[in-house]
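Entry for the shared binder. Reason: the reviewer on the internal report wants the predicted structure included alongside the sequence.
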Amino acid sequence: MIYDYFIKIDRGIFLILNSLATWPGLASFLRLIANDFLIPVLFALALFYLWIVPGVNNKKIVFLAICSNGLVNLVIKIIDLAFFRPRPFLVIPTNLLYYRPTVSSFPSVPAAVVFSIASAIYIYNKKFGTYAIFVAAVYSVDRVIVGVHYPSDILIGALMGFVASYVIGKNVYFDYLYKLSYKLLTVFKIDEFDPLKN
């Protein structure tokens, strides 16, 4: 009963957001934002920028983003093995502006990935992190508008990204792992990675 009510609300919100895909002149912009390259590449470039620009915690942000992404993708893989949710366009009439992904809709991997990176940035740099969270939110909501995710897919994916970054970043062993990674990298003569300086 509760599950059916939840699904009804989820689909209702989806249909409202997906109706924006019919607005004249908006389709190309929506496709641009929702694609698999623009925003993820911008986030990758942001991490690259943080890696090369001196800063108190810049390299720590990158290390946290990598760890949280690994964790969130592992958890989603386990969920996918146990539960498959069909994409909206397979279940209800949809204004589809995107290609047809075949993997499970729930939870949203793209939302989990961008929010884990945005959260990692926010933990150490509130101003930059706030911008990153805003961009992650626009990207994630846009994936509902173009018809490839339900709102709950995005919400749970984003929550998983936040939790992964905070669980790892606030863990008492994180600094130890970060410094250990430096020692491992020096074995491979990657001396530029120095957490004592960054």
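Summary line for the report: The chain has one domain: 2-187.
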